[in-house]
């Protein structure tokens, strides 16, 4: 049992170091590696991989930007959701006669 825990701890430490290293390397080499993977995916014979490669090619700038900044449009989408809910509640109150009971 100790042997397994030691290996798992070692594996976790290796994974953490790989993640940190990958994050540091991503900002410099990531866009190049992504382009190479997209080219490989387009040449691949598996249709799902080809589909993913074309999607990544289409949204390449956004994918690279997200990995560099980690910014999303979640706050904007949440605000839009609130406006849409208010619009749905306000239906039927466009005319003054519908306001009176």
From TrEMBL:
Residues 30-95 form the Transposase IS204/IS1001/IS1096/IS1165 DDE domain. InterPro entries: Transpos_ISL3 (IPR047951), Transposase_DDE (IPR002560). PANTHER family: TRANSPOSASE FOR INSERTION SEQUENCE ELEMENT IS1557. This is Transposase.
